[in-house]
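Justification of computing resources. Each target in the renewal requires a structure prediction run like the one illustrated here; the chain below, 125 residues long, is used simply to show the kind of job we budget for.
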Amino acid sequence: MPADDDLLQALGLGALSDPQVICWRDLDPKTATDELDRLATWLDWFVDRYYLDHKTVPPCWHAHGALVEELSALRTLWEACYLEDAAPSDPIGFHRDLDTTLRRLREWTSRLGCSRINHRPEMHT
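Resulting structure tokens:
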């Protein structure tokens, strides 16, 4: 079993440090690509850890702005609750917020109509 620092390193988070709050709107294309890669690394672990399926996080999540924003915010919260100076109750708070987030992800994914094998681009009107 990896140590906490090993897990954070594997997830591309380095040593325990302040979480990065990402404002996707302000990122240049190169930084956005780097952040998507970092988010994807964490998300691979997260989806496996919480046994989530395509109805919650579709394979094309990265093509949907709302899903990127929600998942990025969730990762930031997860990072914050495991900092060295986090309160002992922070992980419980994360899981309370996780419940709400998973409901929103399922609703958005359902509206998008994407499946395990088919991506439906968003239609902006």
